UniProtKB/TrEMBL annotation:
<keyword id="KW-0507">mRNA processing</keyword>
<dbReference type="InterPro" id="IPR039753">
    <property type="entry name" value="RG7MT1"/>
</dbReference>
<dbReference type="InterPro" id="IPR004971">
    <property type="entry name" value="mRNA_G-N7_MeTrfase_dom"/>
</dbReference>
<feature type="domain" description="MRNA cap 0 methyltransferase">
    <location>
        <begin position="1"/>
        <end position="240"/>
    </location>
</feature>
<keyword id="KW-0694">RNA-binding</keyword>
<keyword id="KW-0489">Methyltransferase</keyword>
<keyword id="KW-0007">Acetylation</keyword>
<dbReference type="Pfam" id="PF03291">
    <property type="entry name" value="mRNA_G-N7_MeTrfase"/>
</dbReference>
<dbReference type="GO" id="GO:0004482">
    <property type="term" value="F:mRNA 5'-cap (guanine-N7-)-methyltransferase activity"/>
</dbReference>
<dbReference type="GO" id="GO:0003723">
    <property type="term" value="F:RNA binding"/>
</dbReference>
<keyword id="KW-0808">Transferase</keyword>
<dbReference type="InterPro" id="IPR029063">
    <property type="entry name" value="SAM-dependent_MTases_sf"/>
</dbReference>
<keyword id="KW-0506">mRNA capping</keyword>
<protein>
    <recommendedName>
        <fullName>mRNA (guanine-N(7))-methyltransferase</fullName>
        <ecNumber>2.1.1.56</ecNumber>
    </recommendedName>
</protein>
<keyword id="KW-0949">S-adenosyl-L-methionine</keyword>
Amino acid sequence: MFLKSKKKLEEGHSSAVAAHYNELQEVGLEKRSQSRIFYLRNFNNWMKSVIIDIADVSVKQCQQRYEDMKNRCRDNEYIFSAEFVTADCSKELLINKFHDTETCFDICSCQFVCHYSFESYEQADMMLRNACERLSPGGYFIGTTPNSFELIRRLEASETESFGNEIYTVKFQKKGDYPLFGCKCDFNLEGVVDVPEFLVYFPLLNEMAKKYNMKLVYKKTFLEFYEEKIKHNENKMLLK
């Protein structure tokens, strides 16, 4: 979590990511509950209580859920207003797509997607600009991304250029060469994800965020976060 201090598009891996998520079918809760990764997906959703997306289908599904929620509201109930934008936040300046280009935000939530932008410095910088530039002073940028240190540790412990189990696999091009940008790996999670990703060296992300007046105020692994937050009953209820 970062706090804001009070002071013609190129083709790349992003098109493959968008195509992958556009092809995923909305199967409904009953069928999702039969998946072997059902509880993993629930845990990930618990980590990100989250509308900009690179996949047009995902945006449309999100917008439909928002409209359904509005329709269920009683007259005396308040529901937040929302804009839905299909864009690549690592290549496009998002503020130009908003109805009000002067709008500011208190929180930007970027869950499980920051790593896609680390294909190059330019893309990572654009992602951070979009996330932080329109935050109000004192605003927060909250994000989650795979732990590059843990991924490399598991890779180096493997006898091949990949590791995983019957549910997931992570495959690198080779061991021992981990550039700050463009460090590509292929991640496959049963029935849900099969797209190229890039490692995020967190100290570098921290330094790059300073350009936009951000300072790091909270950093935990998922395990550390779980052990800290699960002690509270309201958080336990979210996992049920």
